[in-house]
Amino acid sequence: MSRLPGLPPPKPIPIKDRASIAFVEKGNVDVLDGAFVVVDTTGVRIHLPIGGLACLMLEPGARISHAAIVLAARAGTLIVWVGEAGVRVYSAGHPGGARSDRLLWQASLAMNDDARLKIVRKMFSIRFGDNAPERRSVDQLRGIEGARVKRLYELLAQQNGVVWHGRNYDHTDWGKGDIPNRCLSAATSCLYGLAEAAILAAGYAPAIGFLHSGQPLSFVYDIADLFKFETVVPVAMQVAGRAANGKLTVDPGGEVRRGCRDIFRRTFLLDKIIPTIENVLMAGDLPLLRSEREDD
Fold first, then answer.
1. φ and ψ of 99, to 5 deg
2. Which one of 100, 174, 180, 190 is CB 3.0 to 4.6 Å from 260, fit for a cystine?
């Protein structure tokens, strides 16, 4: 990433041409001899092509220098401080990959009733594997989705021997819910953290949603819901089932978080989320201006 004196800084690699996300589990992230590196406890350097990444995730055990932050910002790479495998998002740096055209595009799609409905229908088809019913509003599709989700919860609970009384929890009182609901809350929290990091890395706003709206993480909920029942909900129900059968001797919440971490890594979920975001938004049929897209 070093350059000759007097020359302008290199133009950042377009986000669409970058690898999506890389994790640093342990080590010191720094700039040495002009290169972005991770240095382990033995002094071994691992070079990272920071300009070729959309996002760098720093897990517990990683430290980063001021020089590394500066270089990442110039390269347009987002730095996010997360829990293991992204199961928590603690903080994020300046999203250098985000530009006003992406945010304006997302906002224009959300404000256009026809585009919003197309996007909601696209999310419905991705989530359930079939087309949404014709001539339905966003509110009507939300109701249909809720009924299907309720049946999926019931089915997974039955398969895992869980006594299920419905999704019922109080986010202000963690201990008030039963074990299945506490497991589900822990699982979805992990997925929301991963989805938020991906949305930030791709350059979009977590608050501008389509099926969900009016909340700080509306778009996070939209995107996370597309993957929920193929990843974290089965993990939560499996842990709840083991707890119900007396086969679990550890904290269910911690077991769920570890299970989510493992399934995120095993399924390469982060590699799927960013392309899915683009696929969903393109369904709105309001493309960016050509002059803006050429800069992507």
1. -130, 165
2. 190
pTM exceeding 0.90: no
* CATH architecture assignment, domain 100-293: Up-down Bundle (1.20)
Mean pLDDT by 10 residues, the chain (296 residues): 45 60 86 91 88 83 93 84 73 64 91 96 95 94 95 96 87 73 88 85 89 94 96 95 83 86 87 91 80 44
The superfamily (CATH) of domain 15-92 is CRISPR-associated endonuclease Cas1, N-terminal domain (3.100.10.20)
Cα gap 171→169, rounded to integer Å: 6
Query: Is-same-fold flag (15-92; 100-293)?
Result: no
Kindly list the domain boundaries of the chain, sorted by start residue. 15-92, 100-293
